[in-house]
Design brief:
By secondary structure, the chain is mainly alpha-helical. It has two domains: about 55 residues, no CATH class; about 35 residues, no CATH class. The protein contains four helices and no strands.
């Protein structure tokens, strides 16, 4: 077994909740992991407040996530169909009217 010596400040010692000057590696990793999770949670809360997510319901957040996830797949689908939309006469028939003046009937 190897011994690793780590030097930390008194503030970090208290911040990590260390109660002994000897830790096994698993306990050390657990302490550091908990601190990182805590920092990430604080960042997530700050971002949620910044972008208004904290005032949204879970259903609203879920719907926003679904919309964001659909955008790339919809873009890929549109790119794959672009040739059809520019050359298929059934899809381009009304483009002949693009340059025609439009008059509202009354």
């Amino acid at each position: 077994m190897k011994t690793l010596s780590v030097t930390i400040s008194d503030v970090e010692y208290g911040m990590f909740g260390i109660t002994s000057d000897r830790l096994n590696f698993t306990d050390f990793v657990d302490l550091v992991s908990r601190q990182l999770i805590h920092q990430n949670l604080n960042r997530s809360v700050a971002l949620a407040e910044k972008y208004g997510l904290s005032s949204m319901t879970m259903d609203e957040i879920t719907n926003e996530v679904i919309k964001k996830r659909k955008r790339p797949s919809m873009k890929r689908a549109a790119e794959r169909l672009y040739a059809d939309y520019t050359t298929d006469e059934n899809l381009t028939a009304f483009t002949q009217l693009d340059c025609e003046d439009f008059y509202e009937s009354r």
